[in-house]
Amino acid sequence: MPKIVDHDARRAELVEASWKVIAAEGLEGLTMRKVADAAGCTTGRITHYFADREALVLAALRAVNGATSSRTDALLASKAAPREKLILCLEEGLPLDKTRQLEWKVWIAFWAAAASNPDLAKENDARHQGWVKALSPLITAAAPKADAEHEARILMGILDGLGLIAAINPTARNKDNARDAVHTHVAGLIKNYS
Predict the structure, then answer these.
(1) For residue range 67-83, what is the model confidence (pLDDT) as tens digits?
(2) What is the topology classification, in CATH, of domain 61-193?
(3) What is the Cα–Cα distance from 170 to 176, expressed in whole angstroms?
């Protein structure tokens, strides 16, 4: 009887291995050999699932964005109050634990590459647009008089800036500062636009 292979699980394993390489060495350090070593497989397995390095890179970016989106979607579906949902979604976008720290290191590498790679820039823009789309209704519910899309973009800037600081230097203080800034901005938003 032939061995049954879960191809989606294999692809996911390879993508997660690529995250580890990207987080440790940046995109410039990503090679099929290094991903194979991180995944404990041969390069042949990688080329079976990904046509080339660029396909793996794009899959890695989409997967890291998808992982965050899945967690955020679960928060959006919760029965929490709009303000609480907003804060929880924003905190989900910060590097406050090992999983999100890894994701941030991957994002940082992609941001640097996106400056000169139109495909990666397009993926990055789609990620930001997804965040704005997810946050805007929460802002409207919590602060009905606010320009929700504008405020969502401001919150994305706060997340990106403070998240970058906390990802590069993941001290408790930097993580607390990022979390506190989110809470402070949301409180001011609600106070000013309710």
Answers:
(1) 999 999 999 999 999 99
(2) Tetracycline Repressor; domain 2 (1.10.357)
(3) 10
